[in-house]
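Our platform keeps sequence and structure together, in a single record for each protein. Such a record has a labelled line for the sequence and another for the backbone structure tokens. This encoding replaces a full spatial description with a residue-level series of whole-number codes. Below, we set out a record of this kind in full and without editing:
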Amino acid sequence: MQNQQSMSLKEWIITIILLFLPIANLVMLIIWATDKADPRNNFAKAYLIVTACAIALMILIYIVIIFIFFTMGVYIGFLE
């Protein structure tokens, strides 16, 4: 069985602060997700999956909203 090391409160606070930084969070999540020895491995994988799903959902919603406005404009007569 693999021996996992636990993280201290200070390390978790640093982790959370790093996740607030726009570009650094993506870089650090990829590093943590690929490092098998890091105790944040599963957390980083789950965070990346949830973030990817949220981005895909936002893109889908934007496409639907643009489609609705476009068809509404054609229907009203703004776009002919």
About this structure: Residues 41-75 form one domain. The helical segments are 9-20, 22-34, 41-76. The mean pLDDT is 88. The CA atoms of residues 8 and 14 lie 10 Å apart.
